[in-house]
Amino acid sequence: MSNQLELRHLKYFLAVAEELHFRRAAERLYISQPGLSRQIKQMEDDLGVILFERHNRKVILTKAGEYLKKELSITLKSLDYTLHHTKLVHDGKIGNLKLGYVGSAMQSVIPNLLIAFEEKHPNIVFSLKEIDNETQIKHLLSFDLDVGFVRLERVPKDLETKPILNENFCLVLPKSFKISSKSLKNLESFKNESFILFDPKYSASYYEKVMQIFDDSGFLPIISHNTIHAGSIYKLVENGFGISIVPKSLAANNNENLQFIELDKMKQKTTLSVVWNKNNRNPMLQNFLKLI
């Protein structure tokens, strides 16, 4: 690399590569658009390559630009991690892990894993965020997360996945419904009820699996509400806005106003998986995966 290039040039390039728009990238970097254009042109001249195809209304990465974007994303995230880790060492810590999860994973899976992990690695800092499936995938690809807990059938090729929990679905009903798992033959008796379901944007594959339950039961459900939080589902069911279907791990047995009936005769199951980026260089990630 030419000694004319500095770290700021690399950050400028990544901003343009991600935005594919010089004005938006300049606003993001708090510099002028002409100044940003000059810096990118200087970078191309120093490298002796063309990184962007410039058109009147759009900017396109060349093959060289695509390659540089992918490699710099990894390298700069690694640098950020190194600097952050340096601060952790100064504070007496040995590392950190950033975890994303869907709500059902927090019921028992994640707490049990963290307890077991902390026994062997007591000086770890954990960052935990409840995030929908698709956002977790984006954050894993950009190295803003180390580990995700998702309900997805497929993930991009740069990610690795491992199923850790396969479970039945549960029907969620108000306590006032006089029905039990023994008396429940199929869901057809609920065809006139309103259903409150997880939003398909939360996970399209999960939503499709729930819809297959209705297909096998012989009716199309009346969907009154979609949400991404189990707590919202339970409040709506409690207040008579409808009934729901959730993973078994979300069955809140301590809620006196609800009843949960396990759909153990249904062939549809839902799988919770751990997912991570195979290019992630955080050493704590490998220790965590060994535990899993």
TrEMBL record:
The UniProt entry's GO CC annotations, sorted and at most eight, read: protein-DNA complex
Q: Output the InterPro entries linked to this UniProt entry.
A: LysR_HTH_N, LysR_subst-bd, WH-like_DNA-bd_sf, WH_DNA-bd_sf
Q: Does the keyword Transcription apply?
A: yes
User: Could you tell me which residue ranges the HTH lysR-type domain spans?
Assistant: 5-62
Q: Which UniProt keywords apply?
A: DNA-binding, Transcription, Transcription regulation
**Which GO terms fall under molecular function for this chain's record?**
DNA binding; DNA-binding transcription factor activity
Among SUPFAM superfamilies, the record links this protein to: Periplasmic binding protein-like II, Winged helix' DNA-binding domain
Q: Which PANTHER family match?
A: HCA OPERON TRANSCRIPTIONAL ACTIVATOR HCAR, TRANSCRIPTIONAL DUAL REGULATOR HCAR-RELATED
- Which family does this protein fall into? Belongs to the LysR transcriptional regulatory family.
Name of the protein in question:
LysR family transcriptional regulator
State the organism named in the record.
Answer: Seonamhaeicola algicola
